[in-house]
């Protein structure tokens, strides 16, 4: 019998954690995904240490600033290091979107705690709905890879992302 021999041990409430996932697991998975994406785009460079440290920092310390820098390191490295028409584009789009969604989730949760599997399923469903649009666009970009420079698209995406971050920071101060 659990708690036998210890006074009051059987009377203590032990929370049922069935259906819950530790946030440490979600943070670790987020950092690992960001590091794997960084490994693809930094391909053997010693500079991979910078995005690795920032990705781990962004997953462990919930901060919009860390998340922003981590995502920008991945996006800029992809734009600079991988050629237009790279077959990694669909994988990178899905991975970057997953890291983005997980950073947003973790920015609003405590460092330690639990999250329900149902909440993660809902997040996964929303992720997949967006990927239903993002993946065909990525495949179209692959087909049109030689149609011109992707620099305007990258600059537009970075500008939009910067506006979003500034909006979040401004909203947090209000």
Strand order of the largest sheet: 1-2
Helix content: 55-70%
Treating each run of at least 4 consecutive H or I residues as one helix, how many helices? 6
Rg result: 20 Å
Low-confidence stretches: none
Rounded to the nearest angstrom, the distance between the terminal CA atoms is: 54 Å
Count of individual beta strands: 2
Give the biggest beta sheet. 2 strands, antiparallel
Structural class: mainly alpha
Query: Mean pLDDT, rounded to whole units?
Result: 78
What is the strand content?
under 5%
Q: What is the H/E string?
A: EHHHHEHH
Shape: globular
Give the helix/strand layout.
Elements: E1 20-22, H1 23-42, H2 49-60, H3 64-81, H4 89-107, E2 114-116, H5 117-143, H6 151-173
Antiparallel strand pairs: 1-2
Helix pairs in contact: 1-2, 1-3, 1-4, 2-3, 3-4, 3-6, 4-5
What does this protein look like?
This protein is globular. The chain contains six helices and two strands, in the order E-H-H-H-H-E-H-H. Helix 1 packs antiparallel against helix 4 and helix 2 runs antiparallel to helix 3. Strands 1-2 form a two-stranded antiparallel sheet. The model has no long low-confidence stretch (mean pLDDT 78). The protein is mainly alpha-helical and 174 residues long. 68% of the residues lie in helices and 3% in strands.
List descriptors.
174 residues, 2 strands, mainly alpha, two-stranded antiparallel sheet, globular
Summarize the structure.
The protein is mainly alpha-helical and 174 residues long. It contains six helices and two strands, in the order βααααβαα.
């Amino acid at each position: 019998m659990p708690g036998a021999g210890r006074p009051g041990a059987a009377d203590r409430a032990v929370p049922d954690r069935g259906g819950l996932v530790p946030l440490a697991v979600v943070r670790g998975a987020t950092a690992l995904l960001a590091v794997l994406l960084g490994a693809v785009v930094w391909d053997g460079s010693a500079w991979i240490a910078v995005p690795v440290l920032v990705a781990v920092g962004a997953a462990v310390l919930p901060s919009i600033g860390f998340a922003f820098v981590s995502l920008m390191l991945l996006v800029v490295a992809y734009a600079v290091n991988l050629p237009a028409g790279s077959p990694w584009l669909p994988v990178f789009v899905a991975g970057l979107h997953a890291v983005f969604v997980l950073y947003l989730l973790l920015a609003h949760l405590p460092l330690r705690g639990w999250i329900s599997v149902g909440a993660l399923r809902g997040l996964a469903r929303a992720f997949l709905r967006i990927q239903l649009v993002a993946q065909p666009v990525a495949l179209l970009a692959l087909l049109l890879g030689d149609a011109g420079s992707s620099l305007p698209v990258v600059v537009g995406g970075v500008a939009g992302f910067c506006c979003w971050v500034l909006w979040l920071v401004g909203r947090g101060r209000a």
